[in-house]
Amino acid sequence: MSDPRQAWFARMMESGLENSIFAPSDVLAHATPDVLATNLPPELLSKILAASLAAGAMTPERVLETLTPEVLAAHVPHDVLWACIAAAAARAGVTGTRSS
Amino acid sequence: MNIKAFFVATLTSALDLGIATPDDVLRHATADVLSIHLPRPLWARLLTAALGAPRLDAQLIIDTVGVPNLCEHIPSSIIWACVAEIGQRALSGAPAQPISRQAAATPPSGVKSIPLAAPPPEVKREAPPPEPKREPLPDIKREAPARVPAAPAAAAAPAPKLSDGLADVAAALEADERELSPSGRARSNTGPRFRQAGTGIGRLAAINTRRPQAPAPAPEEPARAAASSAARPARRGAGEVEGAYELESEVKEDWKSSLAVEDEQLVDWQGGEETQTAAEEYRKR
Hints:
Number of strands of chain A: 0
Largest interface: A-B, 29 and 30 residues
Number of domains of chain B: 3
Order of helices and strands of chain B: HHHHHHHHHHHHHHHHHH
Radius of gyration of chain A: 14 Å
Strand content of chain B: under 5%
Helix content of chain A: over 70%
Number of domains of chain A: 1
Strand content of chain A: under 5%
Oligomer: heterodimer
Number of helices of chain A: 7
Structural class of chain B: mainly alpha
Largest sheet of chain B: none
């Protein structure tokens, strides 16, 4: 991953999921099917579908098993990912005005 | 939800990747903010580092306090404001930062002149010349491969017999090496030889043809011990002697096993007549 910004977004997505700042469903609320269909390459779309077919259901968790943070950062527009992060930060109550 | 861990990961990676610089962090975690929220021990650490550093900058502060401590003690809203600014800048496509964190860690030219690593190269340059003198090492190994494989001067020394003590061999090697090596030459550290001299194993090997000797009590002790051993089998003095023997045996287990001492010879040491006779002999000596 040569682009530092891409690496940073991947790390933020990874940490956000690890620390339950947001859930896979929150990610897919921003990285909607339209966004994924528009931005993911065919092989990734095929992989998601195949994995879901094999499991019998397509869940956000299963989708994110294929769409790892690195893959998300590589293919999903960063403003979409940032919107996901910012929304999670707002939910966590850390986006208020600065207290000195 | 662990928002602080998320902030730590986010800020750390941003700094590592050059997305953000320490200055970006200190724009939000200002001195006022730090003074209010940073615990005193961290302030003490920061002051110590700042006083000891040739110059104080944001890099030093971040490195000293640490991102985890900042995220732990600074209010999350402030940290988020910092992250949000970094994120917005990253999204805008503006050049993240001219220099990465690693580059920022490089001291400026004025500070660079601290001669931390100057002496070692000179020492290394002096070391190679003695190498050619070690060439006869294979011959030495061919002549005396059994006991002294690492000593270069063993070629000149006669091959020691197995019955010779290791201490004698070591002494001979020392003498020969003193003759062969020039005064200023650096000598390689031959570990086994010094270990023998330090532990006394060589001295013990030299006397291993003799009968094993347990430490005898003081001259007047055997008679008293023989008289009272039946009544008091667990005397304090006897225990000490036995303890001393055990202590010694721990150090010299290698030779002890080679002597094949029977248990009977050791058990009745103080009570037996043979022992008393031996003690008498020792007293004469």
